[in-house]
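# step 3/5: fold
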Amino acid sequence: MNEIVLAIIGSGAFFTFLQFILQRLDNKKNLEAKIDAIGEALEEHKATLARTHILRFADEQKQYVKQNMSHSEEYFKQQLLDIKTYNTYCAKHPDFSNGLTVIATEYIEEEYKRLYMPHSDITKGGEDSK
C-alpha cells in the first residue's frame, strides 16, 4: 500500500491533482469577488435610482400644489420607501454622494403629513389632540 502511495506521489499525478484543486479554489474566490462586486453595484444603482425618484417626485409635487393637485397617498408611500432606501445606503457608504435629497426629503415628508396625516401628533409639534 505504501508503495502505491509513493508511486502516485512520485509520478507527479498527486501534484497535478493538488494544483487542479488549488486552481478551482482560486477560481471560486474570484467568482465570489465578482458576485460581491455586482451586488454592490446593484445596491449603488438602487440608491441612485431612489435619489432620482425622490428629486423628481418633489419637483412634481411642487408643480401639483401650484395647480391645487397632489400625488396619491400610495405614490407618497412609495417615495417614503425610496427615501428609506437612499438614506440606508448613504449611512452605510459615507463616500457616496449623499446629502443631495435633504430638502426634497423634508418637503415630501411634510407634504405627506399635511395631506394624509392632518391630525397626527407629528404635525402639531408633539401635542396630543385629546
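# step 4/5: annotate
Residues 2-124 form one domain.
# step 5/5: archive (pending)
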